[in-house]
Predict the 3D structure of the following.
Amino acid sequence: MQNKADRTPGAQPQALSIALCGKGGVGKTALSTLMVHGLRRTGKKILAVDADPAMGLTLALGAERPKTIGQIREHVIQVARKRDTRETERVADMVDYYLLEALVEKEGFSLLAMGRTEVLGCYCPVNSLLRAAVEALSASFDLMVLDAEAGLEQINRKVLRRVDILLVVSDPSARGFHTAGAMQELVRSQPELRPGRIGLVVNRCPADSGEDWEKNAREQGLELLGTIPEDPALREMDRTGESLLALPAESKAMVGIRGVLNRLELV
């Protein structure tokens, strides 16, 4: 598995990046939260990145209304539109400071929310500026866990130049597996993403189903990295809105998450 020491000589070190993607409703945000929950006990410096405009991870991790990358982007665009070169340069020099303002410090991890962008248009220089700033910020962390919106555009264009580990999340349905297979084909067709490792995590697996998850994963061209069983404790916490960071270490879902993290040699 790739780590900081394996990067190109002379390049700025960055956190090992782990992105979770998949079709809507498969539980990416819950699993992202549980991964942060499991990793924060390792003593490593963890950065959680909420790349979904719905900001579900931000809520799940107990942060309320933080400043977002989207808001920073809009501020930079508004200044640039005034065509005041001096003011634009001043704001560009302040991007690192704005990012630190947006960084939410929690017990055992930090959080950065991408948020929603209201200003339409490409604005490639602004996107590149923010992406470079996020990458510079990541150098202060060991691991980055990114909860992605359904699809992959924001991973490639808005957040990271590369992903070290891409976890494709599926539910136990045939449609979920088919979508997971299509997603990994899409990733492999975009060399700019260059994921170091792609694997499948099957969420909400029913007990004693007798299903051969390894076989199903192979049929989609994916490595099975783990299964997360149905967990009544997690379901009840979701129902009541209680933070999943309080899920006991012995719960079924946390045992499953630790299996994935062990397979990835992260714990």
